[in-house]
Amino acid sequence: MFFSVATGFSAAHRLADPTLSLEKNQTIYGKCSRINGHGHNYHLEVTVRGEIDSVTGMSVDLVGLNQIIQHYVIEPMDHSFLNQDLPYFTEVVPTAENIAVYISDVVRSPIEELGAKLHKVKLIESPNNSCEIYAKDIEESRVDRVDRELAVV
Judging by DSSP bridges, how do beta strands 129-134 and 117-126 pair with one another? Predict the structure, then answer.
């Protein structure tokens, strides 16, 4: 059983790799690399999977799920400048994809504590673009990367 909740937040960001020159960032990210950044009204959908509880009739505690999203995503990200206000994004370019991965990382364990599993994070950055991150794919990617790193050692 899959269950989704939707919410939103507003945040600013600058697409720029801090290790690259201004010119190189402009070549890669265009006007999104402007020094003062720009903002979006993000729409977020978090989908979890779980078994329907025979007593409650729910696959996840909805109040608990909303509290997790509020605490780990909305509170730190809403009305923030992601590059400066979240330490993670001082070194990681805050693209929609990387923001979705970050959200997936911070909500995964708390959702498991509710007895559900994170299935997907969908982040809609604008009417023109969005991304979907499937938790299963992220885990497989990390395992593959660790296996490759261990093979090098």
Answer: antiparallel
